[in-house]
Amino acid sequence: MTANKVRGFSFRYDDRPHTEVFQKSVEIREREKDQRYCITWKQEDGLQVMQTITEYREFGAVHWVLEFENKGTTDSGLISQVRDCDQEFALPDDPKKIPGYETPDGTAKVYFLKGSTWERDEFRAVPRELTPGIAQQCACLGGRSSDTWVPFFDINQGERGYLIAIGWTGQWNASFERTQHGVLVQTGLQELQDQKDGFILYPGEKVRTSSVLILPYDQGQEKAHNDFRRLMKKEFSLIGKPGRPQTGPLCFMGWGGLPSDVLIERIRRSAKYDLGYEYYWIDAGWYGVSENTQDCTDEFTGDWGLRTGDWSVNPYYHPDGLHEVVEEVERAGMKFLLWFEPERAVQGTPMTLEHPEWFLHQVSGDKNLDMHLILDLGNEDAWDYIYQVLCDKIETLHISCYRQDFNFQVLPYWQNHDTIHRKGIHEMKHIAGLYRLWDSLLERFPHLIIDNCASGGRRLDIEMLSRSISLWRSDFQCTWDADPEVAQIHSTGLSWYLPYHGTGAGKHKGDTYAFRSCFGTSSVNSFWGYAEGFGDEEPVEWVRKMNREFKKARPYFSCDFYSLAGYSVDRVSWTGWQYHDPDSDSGVVMAFRRSQSPNSVADFKLRGLLDGCVYRLEDADTGEWQERDGSGLMDMFRVTLPHPRSSKLFFYHVVQKVVEE
User: Fold this and answer.
1) pLDDT < 50: residue spans in the chain
2) Which residue from 511, 520, 469, 533 is spatially nearest to 645, judged by alpha carbons?
3) Which has fewest Cβ within 10 Å: 2, 346, 362, 601?
């Protein structure tokens, strides 16, 4: 199965199908091993629609994005019902029938991926059966792309199917309907689906809509999802690219509302004990000025939220403007990470008073909601302002990782400012401005990485992930008593698609089970991140050991992923993962006996190994090792944990390869 002929889209122009009123031309442009080309549709009045297509031949995948531009001298006609993907994907009838249930058109399913919602079962794959005449529909919530649902889908019929991803950081929707010979897939911006209204473009105006990525498969879901991870790692992620970090960071967190001298003392202690951290992470609370500044010891206290939008360093906490903190970070051999939320501002902060025309508002009737404004990134002056602010902070504070958060549902703001025949315009221009902002920062600062946060992982889509890494995939980890088993659940679900994501390891020192539960391609530790400091009897040796263990395992977490015990949200089962690097024929195995599990033994079947090869497995806790044949490990690998709420980590590598005749 290939994606060479998969590139369908549709829209209506003055209520006529675009194929009836536009002429098509093709421009071919080669890009290394892959092929990139453009299909341009032109209309007599000057409207042009360009579909830029990239075929990733190594993976049999295809990606495209649409741009609409009015090159005429008058307003365009009405553009409506824009479906960035409008394609029937071939999927023959399934010859296997379910007894007692007629399925003449097959038993295909579509798997939706649950989004970030501060819940235990975030990133759970939810299967829905596809039956003729019933469209299975899905959409995100409030204008953030992975709020409620993540825009990644798996159309599956046994060994074959299609992985589909939408690239749009605003309000998307998707529809899947079984047809006689396949599945009809329609995706796009929710605001552009109206049959009665749409948008016109003024002379010289240009917008883009969502991108689409298709990966067909015919060798089963497990291989398909690992192919998708490889595609994301090789072609989309900035991690590992020349000039950028080669891995996700290991971070030491400090709350921004703590005074500079306290932060400096923590940094010095970290260096003294050689804890191995790579980045110093200062979260929210560091910014803004108020007449009655309150102590702000954590994210749940103080008035830091009311200062959002004022990006001057708070002189009450940081009299030197954070410069002394940054100097101490660099002396300790670390890089600097700083939190921002540039798209949101609270009414009354300086820039909202000086330039109210730069901000979008909503009218909900709730004063607590309506006091929050959105910086209009489609406004050139507003865009230039925030770009200069961020560039200044990155340069003067030597920021190596720029952390951007977004803690609000933005859709009502866009809708409130759209007018008749201009539906979706504010959303399209804001999202295009967001992409341009990040692209411009990455171009200006070749060393920079961007952390993509939005109340946790509520902006996970291929457009954002091609520009950033998610260091904090869920706000579930915010509380001091967050259940580490939820981190296991989130890792299992999200790793089905993404090679790079991370979370926080909590605030409790000495808890190996919790620490390992949060392993990923990046990690942030907040052991000494708040008001409490280093004590006399701190288990610094344990922290040092765990960080070394994490960094040894980290390279594998972006490799092939295998869920050894399936997906479960209960507290009585075991869970386990294997991350395998096929290039070096090595990897890690992680096993967890959950808190209420009555079973002391679990049998797993490893994957991706080679028959006839001998592998050495080392227990990270005891240093003991064993050698096993690859076929035997894939038949059964037994793990024993005598006590509930405990874990095992094994490193393995090939020591004897198959001798080819």
Assistant:
1) 1-4, 95-105, 661
2) 511
3) 601
